[in-house]
Amino acid sequence: xxxxxxxxxxxxxxxxxxxxxxxxxxxxxxxxxxxxxxxxxxxxxxxxxxxxxxxxxxxxxxxxxxxxxxxxxxxxxxxxxxxxxxxxxxxxxxxxxxxxxxxxxxxxxxxxxxxxxxxxxxxxxxxxxxxxxxxxxxxxxxxxxxxxxxxxxxxxxxxxxxxxxxxxxxxxxxxxxxxxxxxxxxxxxxxxxxxxxxxxxxxxxxxxxxxxxxxxxxxxxxxxxxxxxxxxxxxxxxxxxxxxxxxxxxxxxxxxxxxxxxxxxx
Length: 266
Description:
Elements: H1 12-22, H2 33-40, H3 44-57, E1 60-63, E2 66-69, H4 74-84, H5 86-101, E3 104-111, E4 114-121, E5 136-138, H6 143-150, H7 154-161, H8 177-190, E6 193-196, E7 203-211, E8 217-226, H9 232-258
Antiparallel strand pairs: 1-2, 3-4, 3-8, 4-5, 6-7, 7-8
Helix pairs in contact: 2-3, 5-9, 6-8
């Protein structure tokens, strides 16, 4: 994986270690040294040194020549989520929303042209795609992604729409970029977004924004249903009011958390 060196202080070794971690995903849970080197486009000796370091730190495990990430890696991502207070603010509201709708609900943030799931409360229903904390999908084909993209300025949006998705489950077709802009205008005007089997057959969802103390959209919350069981009218007429209330409560709690006084003790 090629890293753009934009600063004389760029640390090559750190970048390569992160590339090794990112070689693993939902479809590549166990990899050999050669497979990692190929996916990272790095020399085998470099990958080997990184794997040894990560293994000693407890982030990588090895069995019969195949490497896998350990649960400790989750602490790296959750540190960012926890530091923002978002996870703590969202979870109780997601849980109450699920109790009312009896459908799965998640929260996601933007990562390039992808969304990444940062909170989720699921119900045992059959959906064609598995979703966990850290799962990535192309933003333009998801309801949450549309909400997040709609908040961007025109220049930033144009730049993102040219990026390649890092999701290995679904790919974003760049030829659809002109049509997505018209849909984002609609999302801005009505305050919510719908994805009707765009991410995958049978997957339908509705999403609304979650805002920080300055009113900026920092995340999106959704309700996901099986399209064969739940009509669009059910999402918009029955579930949307609950979703708007939950997202509003998360935004209020998050704003209060961000504005809390910080007491420093010398």
